[in-house]
Amino acid sequence: MRGKKREPFKYRILVHYSREDEGYIAVVPELRGCSAWGETEVEALQSVEQAAAAWLESAKANDIEIPAPVDEQRVSGKYALRLPPDLYKELLFEAKTQGTSLNRLMVYKLSKAM
Fold this sequence. Notes:
Layout: E1 14-18, E2 23-27, E3 35-38, H1 41-61, H2 85-98, H3 102-113
Antiparallel strand pairs: 1-2, 2-3
């Protein structure tokens, strides 16, 4: 008899080295407070997957809303942003100077910052 097939982990995981902890910290940002430590990146990843499974189990048991993974969410791509008037004018002027739309300029600036 075969074991239960494991469902793939669908949340994004961030891993970074921590000098203070002398090891790797893995975090699942979408699951508030879900993180784990490991001596290696692989250990941290394995540990955080176990921590996430416990987080999800606890959330289900306590009727806590479980967020859908970002990569599975449908998004429109629209985002309303309030800007100070002076900044708006400067960006609008820059867009006009470059012969592009304000939207394209903002997308370009944001993608460069990423």
